[in-house]
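Mods, move this if it's the wrong board.
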Amino acid sequence: MDLSLATIVLWAVPVVFAITLHEAAHGYVARVFGDHTAYMLGRVTLNPLKHIDPIGTIAVPGILIAVARFTGAPLFIFGWAKPVPVNFGNLRHPKRDMLLGGGRGSGREFRHGSGLGDPAQGDGARRSDGERWTLGDGRRGC
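Not the wrong board. Structure tokens:
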């Protein structure tokens, strides 16, 4: 794989966008369930600078890219973003709400990454003939 600056930028922009949506989704769901901590700290935003962790989002992936480039090892990238703060005491139903809030970010990624969800429309993916994918019994695929 070519590790030119253009390649790194073409990979980094969608990854940072996905991280931003993922973390904002956690904060949004926590707010819906009664915890306004992330909202008050400005973490329910599409501004990626609020979600970037200097070590996990920049340093670790950068080091892994440099190691792969200079040693010829296979490219493996790992990283993380700042966790969204949640005060369990503010949630209306803490056990249920933490389960749903924790799954919201990952659920969004699964739907959109698999093509089952359209971020602009919030509906299922469409086939080449314009029809929606279904589960075989006429129900929507997502």
